[in-house]
Amino acid sequence: MRKNILITGASSGLGEGMAREFAAKGCNLALCARRMEPMETLKAELEAAYPNIKVFIRELDVCNYPQVFDVFKAFKEDMGSLDRVIVNAGMGKGASLGKGYFEANRRTAETNFVGALAQCEAAMEIFRAQNSGHLVTMSSMSAVRGMPRAINIYAATKAGLRTLTEGIRADLLGTPIKASCILPGFILTAINKDLKKAPLRVDLETGCRALVKAIEREPAEAKVPAWPWVPVGLAMKFLPLRIVAKMT
Ligand SMILES: NC(=O)c1ccc[n+]([C@@H]2O[C@H](COP(=O)([O-])OP(=O)(O)OC[C@H]3O[C@@H](n4cnc5c(N)ncnc54)[C@H](OP(=O)(O)O)[C@@H]3O)[C@@H](O)[C@H]2O)c1
Fold first, then answer.
1. CA pair distance 59, 198, nearest whole angstrom
2. Which CATH superfamily includes the segment(s) 4-244?
3. Which of 50, 59, 134, 140 could form a disulfide with 158 if both were Cys (CB 3.0 to 4.6 A apart)?
4. Does the Cβ of 151 fall within 6 Å of ligand 1?
5. Average pLDDT of the chain to the nearest whole number
6. Which tens digit of pLDDT belongs to each residue from 52-111?
7. Catalytic residue numbers, as ranges
């Protein structure tokens, strides 16, 4: 069992939900995000409910790259080893290109891709030194095709992260270190609560239970929840762009 788990973006949504699921399984947690207050509440709640686990929390902005390396190293010191790192922090601001929203698009690109790259680098440094570990990246079903409007840059970053993870896996062939890329469908969180269309969305608890189950299988890649997203993903790949563009 992977006992010591680091999760970024743990102050809300999927990060918080996965922390609850892993705590219930007896895992120690290293949780980070920019907002400390929700993580302080979560730590108190989880340590009270599961006295046999330890929960460490630290402030982290994943766009502060030196801080990513420092925080991951500090968590490793706290816990002795890191068994799994979940690169989960992300955001979804953006708009169609050429309409004056470069700053929102750039911010999403930097957080979701360069920030994720920094997290993968920092995790891999630790895993290579340990010669063990499981890297998990949170991509998205939107990685399967180009998406219009607000999702355009978001989908592009998630496609980039998916390819990055496959490349890391290619580098790791024949080693004990594992890497998995997770493509969630819509799970209700702050990131999508205001979207006009969020087809087939599931509630947070259902979504996080399915995410943790998929992560524990340590697959190369998983679409979550598998039903209906495996067949939907296949359809998305081959449908004409004008139909895909109407999905969100
Ligand atoms: N919910 C879905 O349907 C869905 C589907 C596919 C993929 N995903 C992916 O799942 C991940 C989690 O999203 P969510 O749905 O749980 O959204 P959320 O509730 O908005 O959570 C996003 C988390 O990322 C953190 N974060 C954002 N920018 C950060 C930064 N610069 N540095 C550090 N932490 C940062 C936030 O914490 P602070 O604001 O406190 O820093 C928060 O904890 C994202 O990567 C998202 O793209 C979600």
1. 31
2. NAD(P)-binding Rossmann-like Domain (3.40.50.720)
3. 140
4. no
5. 97
6. 999 999 999 999 999 999 999 999 999 999 999 999 999 999 999 999 999 999 999 999
7. 154
